[in-house]
Write a structure and sequence with these properties.
Blueprint: E1 16-20, H1 21-35, E2 43-44, H2 51-59, E3 64-67, H3 70-79, E4 83-86, H4 93-104, E5 109-114, H5 117-129, E6 134-141, E7 149-150, H6 155-164, E8 168-175, H7 185-208, E9 215-218, H8 224-227, E10 234-235, H9 245-250, E11 260-271, E12 274-277, E13 294-296, E14 302-307, E15 312-316, E16 327-332, H10 335-339, E17 344-349, E18 352-358
Parallel strand pairs: 1-17, 2-3, 3-4, 4-5, 5-6, 6-7, 6-8, 8-9, 9-10
Antiparallel strand pairs: 1-11, 11-12, 11-16, 12-15, 13-16, 14-15, 17-18
Helix pairs in contact: 2-3
């Protein structure tokens, strides 16, 4: 039987998300091996969003995590994490929500990103009013231009300011270079290394000031195998725990296996050469062009030619052999937003589903 085939597939509704537990476990082990130790990992949970997957990482010794939302930070704390970095600059009501989360889980270190003095002042005042300290990382823009402070003549002054505030604890730098995604590893590594030169100069300037040596959290999954070669850098891969078609084809030096699939069924054969499945935009991430949505493992000679909210339309060669009700197993091109489409996931163990995990982190709010 093919590895992805579920023996009780007739009991599973569609479209649905499948998590292959043994493969998740193996991907976690491979991730730790690349990093060299669990200590160097701030694994990103935005990909999986499930407390049970966080617990699997904790069981293998990972205690530090990164996330994208306060809800993801909360489910990570619920699972037992000790250090959680929210990789956003929190403004407005989110500052108060972070304060409430800090009070709810006093044994967990929650940190967020800062790239401006104005936001730092807001954190310092709000946390101080609650008798708390805001844990932060200075967000550095080294080329992605999505967030962070440029590595210019003003960034050291911001670092000094953050270091001097009574209600802020500056842990270090956050440097995300997710824009570098060359397929060839050596080309990707060279671009990443070039982009890190100014970061090194900034670290030297911090040391020359006599300021505390910062932690440096760098990169995501594409940069993982490059930053892992920097012994003092912390890494924050995330997609590799579940893996997907997009990174699987691009990052060929990374040894991870598909551990999350979408199960869908043929629901119609509207005309010769065309079949329709119950996999629309609500079932698989649709931010990429239609030829980069899903790759079916048990179907050949097909083309996804159309999608709407609840339907996916395929042009197929072997139309006569396909029956209404047939089950298809597909690898999403981008697994992170695909997981976010589901409230729950079927957990596959020994090619059988007996339990369901809640994708709790897809919610915008858990309790605070």
């Amino acid at each position: 039987m093919d590895w992805y085939k579920v023996s009780n597939e007739n009991e599973l509704d569609s479209p649905s998300l499948l998590i292959y537990k043994a493969r998740v476990e193996e991907n976690i082990k491979k991730m730790i091996a690349i990093a060299g130790s669990t200590e160097r990992l701030f694994t990103h949970v935005k990909t999986n969003k499930m407390p049970e997957v966080v617990k699997m990482m904790l069981e293998q010794g990972i205690t530090k995590f990164k996330c994208a939302t306060i809800a993801e930070a909360e489910i990570t704390a619920m699972a037992g994490a000790k250090f959680v970095v929210i990789a956003h600059q929190l403004v407005g009501p989110k500052i108060e929500r972070l304060i409430q989360l800090t009070k709810l889980y006093p044994a967990v270190t929650f940190a967020s990103l800062i790239d401006s003095q104005e936001v730092a002042e807001a954190h310092n005042e709000a946390f101080g009013a609650n008798g708390l300290v805001s844990n932060v990382f200075l967000d550095v823009n080294n080329g992605m231009d999505r967030s962070g402070h440029l590595l210019d003549d003003k960034i050291l002054a911001l670092y000094r300011f953050l270091s001097s505030q009574p209600n802020i604890h500056l842990h270090g730098l956050h440097v995300y270079d997710g824009h570098i995604r060359a397929t060839d590893f050596e080309a990707r590594k060279q671009e990443i290394d070039t982009g890190f030169v100014d970061v090194k100069h900034f670290l030297e300037a911090i040391e020359a000031e006599g300021l505390t040596k910062p932690m440096v959290i760098a990169g995501g999954t594409p940069a993982f195998t490059s930053h892992a070669l920097r012994s003092e850098t912390y890494c924050s891969p995330g997609t590799c725990v579940l893996w997907d078609w997009g990174y699987g084809d691009k990052l060929t030096e990374q040894p991870f296996e598909y551990a999350a699939l979408v199960l869908t069924r043929v629901i119609s054969k509207p005309q010769k050469g065309i079949v329709t499945v119950d996999m629309g935009h609500k079932a698989v991430s649709a931010e990429n062009p239609i030829d980069k949505r899903i790759r079916f493992l048990n179907l050949t000679d097909y083309e996804l030619i159309g999608q709407s909210e609840e339907h996916g339309v395929l042009k197929v060669q072997d139309w006569d052999a396909i029956k209404v009700g047939d089950v298809l197993y597909g690898v999403p091109y981008h697994v992170c937003p695909t997981v976010n489409l589901y409230d729950e996931a079927y957990v596959v163990e020994n090619q059988h589903v007996e339990q369901v995990w809640q994708v709790l982190g897809r919610r915008r709010r858990i309790s605070v």
